[in-house]
Amino acid sequence: MKPRHKRFAFIGLGVLVLGVATVLILNAFQSNLVFFFTPTQVAGGEVPQGKSFRLGGMVEDGSLVRDNDGLTVHFIVTDTAKRVPVTYKGILPDLFKEGKGAVAQGQLGADGTFVASEVLAKHDENYMPPEVAEALAKAKASGAQQSKSLVVPEGRKDSL
Amino acid sequence: MIPEIGHFALILALCVAVMQGSLPIYGAAVGNSALMAVAKPAARAQFLLVLIAFCCLGYAFAEKDFSVLYVAATSNSQLPLHYRLAAIWGAHEGSLLLWTFILTLWMFAVTLFSAHLPETTRSRILGVMGLVSVGFLLFMLTVSNPFERLIPAAPEGRDLNPLLQDPGMVIHPPMLYMGYVGFSVAFAFAIAALLGGNLDAAWARWSRPWTTVAWCFLTIGIALGSGWAYYELGWGGWWFWDPVENASFMPWLAGTALVHSLAVTDKRGGFKVWTVLLAIMAFSLSLLGTFLVRSGVLTSVHAFATDPKRGLFILAFLAIVIGGSLALYAWRAPKVGLGGSFAMLSREGMLLANNVLLVAAMGSVLLGTLYPLFLDALDLGKISVGPPYFDSVFVPLMVPALFLMGIGPLAQWKKASVPDLAKRLKWAFGVSVVSALTLPIVLGSWTPLLSLGLLLAIWIMTTSAIGLRERLAHVNGNSLVERLASVPRSYWGMLVAHCGIAVFIVGVTMVKGFETEKDVRMNVGETASIGDYLFRFDGAQDVVGPNYTAVQGTFSVSRDGRDTTVLYPEKRRYPAQNQVMTEAAIDPGLLRDLYVSLGEPLDDGAWSVRLYHKPFIDWIWGGCFIMALGGALAISDRRYRLAWRRQEQAVPVPTRAARRKVA
């Protein structure tokens, strides 16, 4: 092979690898992106059917109920405007609490219940996931106050 | 008083860094040796000053000086001393100080081990490192000063995040930063070479050991972080493709490519331009990692900074460093030249393929990490890119790279032939395929991925064995031991590092294929079985730690009626931040880990409990440590020391010879 041909071969190889990588990436993006929705969006029917997504908001006070098996839990996620019932089977993260922010990943069932496959752990008592904070702010801005049982915490309190 | 000394030392260090970043580079450009001579003492002075600052902060922590805002925010009077000291890097400001301290430490090391370097090269290297240091010192002094006072002083500190109160966390950040910042040396070498316009095999030989050291530290740092996530987060996973993990993994991928590409530049004079680009890439990704992790863009335990000014500063710094070095690269790289030619099928060709694949994999990780940030920044919706994306992109890209890993070391430089390679590799291939197909069946379940993983691992091991045997045939010595000893250390290093990868693959494959997990409700006296093991819950009692109270469960584990071990997982409550923490109990073993963590208390003394049986999981981290050991072996090779000594005596001669060889 002449050097020029060789260079073309190398470039061809590079392009090939790049092409394969692109196809893989696009393919994976297509099927693996997880979108985030607020309870208001869920109530408005904006969520995809039969696809996994993330739901974020506050866990409504007094809404946590545990089944007899000790593992299945039901609670309500709200952004103060709309409420979505959630079911989850498994162990909740340490920082999961009523009245605190939470993000759950799963699918919306036919009866409007969100079946979570995962409830995400957050790392700090006073920490509010930014998505949740934004969801709450949006709901507040739209002025719809239907769920009254909720107290929005005033962000990060310093215990100093 | 002491914190003010620390603060003042940082200001002085900034002044020194500005001098170090300007005078020697200018001196090297105009050939003024008086200006160039500034570099060495300046670097040492800077090291000393930052060390003083570091010690001052350590003193403030040890003395529980809650009039320092940072100390009050990250420690507590109840926190044990070793964690108070580890709290120095427990949050944003202190971890930046650690970054800078390690940068000056590397600078100091360069001044110690650079006697063999030409004066101009050394001053340029130290100058570039000085400039990087200017950026970090400015950052600390303007927007994140660890010595900021809190007046009036707090009566009590806020405490370190309980997740970080762990021995793994004491050493994970310094190790990781040694790696991140270590790439600054390779980066400085590359920039110095671009500035000087002379990039030869000697340059590669000088920067090779530095890069390898940094790579070793980074490997260990990542392994420690992964191990910490495994036992501390209570989820039993070892890698989540979390953006923070990706941030440390991307420099590792680029660094691995760099280590291999440097080998070509060193031995054959090839890949020069590419090597320089990789050096820039590795350090840029380290900076990007620091930015991603420390700026608060990502939500995680690592994201401390919430001040937008800080994010802006790091972003601007990043733009200057990456943009500036790439601009310099575009301007000067054509002068560097391409190096020798080689055939597609040759060791160079394989290493090139390895590089392309590693960089492609790095790009896919980068895309998956940054894409959600871009979408969010452009207000196009909030998404997350989870593990399935990374699994389905990363694995297919790595499989060919791992396969080539077996062939590359056996192929000749310049040109290899297929029939010859096939002849030498045929039994390795046969053994790998047969055992990969049969082993899973023997173990009880066959899946394609299981076979693929084992195939790659055994392939790497067997080809390494062939490589070693061929090497032994070519070295002198009467007995086997003598011949083993005369195989160069750098060769051993490569073999060991590659076998580390194989061990790692075995770990990943076996865990993915055979792990079992169970969430169960257990009352006192009840049993649950997982794998071949029977877990009995013997109740829970209260225990008190130095700065927490806990409920401790007792689990007796038995197998076939014989007691294996007793595990004590805890649910801790840290009153300082009123935070609850799960402390998993693990019985580690060479062939399996048993893992218990407590969920929540239910009625009548029952608990929800998470049980795991994880076969071979310790091989994952074991493999990483073996890789790092391989790197350490490679650095200890005589050729570096000999080359140094020779060049100390007569600097220009070998350089010229090397250049001739390349041309």
Structure characterization notes:
The complex is a heterodimer of chains A (160) and B (663). With 160 residues, chain A is an alpha+beta fold. Chain A has three helices and seven strands. Chain A is elongated, with a radius of gyration of 22 Å. In chain A, 33% of the residues are buried. The C terminus of chain A is likely disordered. Chain B contains 21 helices and eleven strands. In chain B, the strands form two sheets. In chain B, strands 3, 4, 5, 6, 7 and 8 form a six-stranded antiparallel beta sheet that branches. The radius of gyration of chain B is 27 Å and the shape is globular. Chain B starts with a helix and ends with a helix. The relative contact order of chain B is 0.08. The interface between A and B is large, with 45 and 55 residues.
Detail the topology: elements first, then pairings.
The complex is a heterodimer of chains A (160) and B (663).
Chain A: H1 3-32, E1 33-37, H2 39-43, E2 53-59, E3 65-66, E4 72-78, E5 83-89, E6 101-108, E7 114-119, H3 130-141
Chain B: H1 2-30, H2 33-36, H3 39-62, H4 69-74, H5 81-86, H6 92-112, H7 119-143, H8 167-196, H9 201-232, H10 243-268, H11 272-294, H12 308-336, H13 347-377, E1 383-385, H14 387-407, H15 418-443, H16 448-474, H17 480-486, H18 489-514, E2 516-522, E3 527-530, E4 533-544, E5 549-559, E6 562-567, E7 570-574, E8 579-583, E9 585-587, E10 592-601, E11 607-615, H19 618-635, H20 638-649, H21 652-662
Antiparallel strand pairs in B: 2-11, 3-4, 4-5, 5-6, 5-7, 7-8, 9-10, 10-11
Helix pairs in contact in B: 1-3, 1-7, 3-6, 6-7, 6-8, 7-8, 7-12, 8-9, 8-11, 9-10, 9-19, 10-11, 10-13, 11-12, 13-14, 14-16, 15-16, 16-18, 18-19
